[in-house]
Structures are given as structure tokens and as C-alpha cells.
Inverse folding.
């Protein structure tokens, strides 16, 4: 990752979904690396959202906008003339997709079409990172990891919308992007991310923190389901690294990529919750959620094969599940105790980069303005 210190200096970077959990971490990281970052997304939903508490609006230029608003999105892209685009804006919740399937399909498919179309007509773009999900793969109910060339599919609206977005991306890549030799375009699929500042409903880590803070039992929908848990910095580091490679060798690095944890870190939900409770330090009971939504379909096994990224990018996870949970719980503990969220986040970014052998000092990168 040493080259990230120089690659992103003064690069114009557009991030859709900057007000989201992953987007806000990515924007602060890119800004600290020296990029000129512009975010495009709906306003943050809650005062406690990561975007708000780290004061991200002080470090990037944010534009309130919906990716379904094609004229506005194209106008923003045309005026900013970004060199790198990270597309993260989405309806990201499985449970909500059952309640609002049309919103999910509109946002994750039509919205993605709008982003791809804007990239296609913006000649300045040299690297596109198109974020989908590990749930884009057809559920084969097997225990081995899904590789990039495995069949796409989805039994629930969210998974189906992400699989469809992958097909749309492939269509634009094969029909348009391939005619621009200087443009590299990659779709990326990560595991279940954990990290400080996520307060979304129906996500296991925020649910755990809320329950532990209030002294309540922790309700779990599918305690025996196996998921690829990883700290949010793991896939984001992969995205930043891949975008840098796309700038240098667009043809070689275009295509689909998985960024998931090591197999040893793919734990059942129950084991993850127990580790969170252990790091928190206060006892809590884990109970099976008894609600109608608990009967909704979810795959039992979800693992990713990331051999491509490890072989061609020399990317590999640096924080195992134990450190991932410890860093995440520490972020929430210190935040709730009054620590400065911006400093908490940036210190973890620097600590993570140091694990890559990168000199992640204030002099090495640029402290976000």
C-alpha cells in the first residue's frame, strides 16, 4: 500500500454514498491520502451516523442527491470531472428489501444504471470501482467460497438486485468501457463489514452495541448462519488499491473482484456475538429472535474465495476476527465515553495502514482538512 500515499495526491475522486457507513470511512481515508473528494448521496439519516459525528463535511465537498436523479448526477459528474469514481450508494439492507422491494430494485439497479451512464459520458474518469455485495452469488448452499466467476443470483430482493447490478455493470463494460483503453472498471464484492459508527437497523454489530449499552438481551435471527466477517477497512483498502492499479493498467485489472476475510474468520453469527460481548466486558444473554421476519429466507453459508485478489493484487486481510471485533468495540466504547470520532476513525485508518507496512504517519499522508 505504499504507493497509495502518492497515487491519491490531488486526484479528483467522486464517491456515491458518502453519507453511508462504508462511504464515510472511504471518504475520510481518501481525503487523508491527499485526494480532492466529492460525495454524492442522500443526506445522512441519523445525527449519530458516522458521516455526521466525524464532521466529514469539513473534509470533502458533499452534494445532496439521489442516484435516481439522473440529470443531477450527470451534471455533478460533468462539472467535477473526476478521475476516480467509487460507487457505493445503495439500499443495503436485506430485511428492508422485503418491506420495500421496489425501492430496492429502483435504487440498486436503475440507480446503478444512472451511475454507469454518467461514467460512460464523462471522459475524465480513468478508474471505476463499482461496489455490489457478496450476496450477488446464487445460493448453492455449499460451504466453499464463491469465486468471481461463480453463477449470480438471488432469492431475496436485495440479493437479486445486486446480482442484476452486476449484469448491468458487465453490459456497460463489454459495450462501452472496453472502447476506452484509458478507463479501468471493476466490480467489487466484500464480506459482512464491521466498524465504528455504524448505527443501521437490522445489522448485527449495531444491534449488539445498542443492546449492551442498554443492558438488554441480544436478539439474533439466525445464530448458526456463517458469514464472512471483516473490518470495514479491509475491503476499502482493497478498493483503494484496485483503483490505483486500474489507473496504471486498466485492461489487466478490470473485471470482478472479491475482498473477503480468511476462511478462519468466517464465523457463525452466534460466535461473533459472543466475541462482541467478551470484548465489551459486561454479561449479556443471546436469544433467538421470534418475529415474523425471522422466517424470511437467508442463506446458511456465505463465504468468499479471494485468491484472485491475493494473487494478482497481493492483497490479503491484516486484521483477524479477534482484532476486528476488538477495534470495533473499542471505537464504540470510546465514542460513547466522549472521545472525538474523527480522531478515532483516523487513528484506526493509520493503524491499519501500518499493518500493511505503510508509513501511515501524518507526514506520510495528509491529515484530512
Amino acid at each position: 500500500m505504499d504507493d497509495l500515499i502518492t497515487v491519491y495526491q490531488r486526484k479528483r475522486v467522486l464517491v456515491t454514498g458518502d453519507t453511508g457507513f462504508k462511504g464515510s470511512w472511504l471518504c475520510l481515508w481518501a481525503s487523508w491520502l491527499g485526494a480532492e473528494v466529492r460525495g454524492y448521496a442522500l443526506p445522512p439519516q441519523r445525527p449519530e451516523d458516522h458521516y455526521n459525528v466525524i464532521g466529514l463535511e469539513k473534509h470533502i465537498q458533499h452534494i445532496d442527491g439521489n442516484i435516481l436523479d439522473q440529470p443531477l448526477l450527470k451534471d455533478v459528474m460533468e462539472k467535477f470531472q473526476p478521475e476516480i469514481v467509487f460507487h457505493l450508494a445503495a439500499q443495503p439492507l436485506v430485511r428492508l428489501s422485503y418491506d420495500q422491494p421496489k425501492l430496492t430494485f429502483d435504487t440498486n439497479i436503475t440507480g446503478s444504471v444512472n451511475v454507469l451512464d454518467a461514467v460512460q459520458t464523462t471522459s475524465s474518469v480513468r478508474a471505476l470501482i463499482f461496489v455490489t455485495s457478496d450476496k450477488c452469488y446464487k445460493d448453492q448452499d455449499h460451504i466453499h467460497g464463491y469465486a468471481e466467476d461463480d453463477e449470480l443470483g438471488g432469492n431475496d430482493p436485495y440479493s437479486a438486485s445486486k446480482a442484476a447490478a452486476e449484469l448491468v455493470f458487465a453490459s456497460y463494460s463489454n459495450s462501452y468501457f472496453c472502447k476506452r483503453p484509458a478507463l479501468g472498471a471493476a466490480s467489487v464484492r466484500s464480506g459482512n463489514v464491521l466498524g465504528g459508527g455504524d448505527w443501521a437497523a437490522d445489522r448485527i454489530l449495531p444491534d449488539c452495541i445498542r443492546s449492551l449499552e442498554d443492558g438488554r438481551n441480544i436478539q439474533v435471527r439466525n445464530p448458526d448462519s456463517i458469514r464472512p466477517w471483516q473490518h470495514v477497512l479491509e475491503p476499502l483498502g482493497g478498493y483503494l488499491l484496485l483503483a490505483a492499479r486500474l489507473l496504471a493498467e486498466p485492461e489487466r485489472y478490470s473485471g470482478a473482484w472479491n475482498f473477503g476475510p480468511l476462511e478462519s474468520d468466517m464465523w457463525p453469527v452466534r460466535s461473533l456475538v459472543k466475541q462482541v460481548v467478551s470484548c465489551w466486558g459486561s454479561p449479556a444473554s443471546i436469544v433467538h429472535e421470534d418475529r415474523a421476519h425471522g422466517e424470511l429466507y437467508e442463506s446458511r453459508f456465505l463465504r468468499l474465495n479471494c485468491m484472485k485478489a491475493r494473487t494478482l493484487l497481493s492483497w490479503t486481510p491484516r486484521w483477524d476476527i479477534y482484532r476486528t471485533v476488538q477495534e470495533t468495540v473499542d471505537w464504540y466504547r470510546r465514542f460513547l465515553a466522549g472521545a472525538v470520532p474523527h480522531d478515532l476513525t483516523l487513528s484506526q485508518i493509520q493503524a491499519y495502514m501500518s499493518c500493511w507496512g505503510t508509513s501511515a504517519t501524518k507526514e506520510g499522508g495528509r491529515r484530512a482538512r
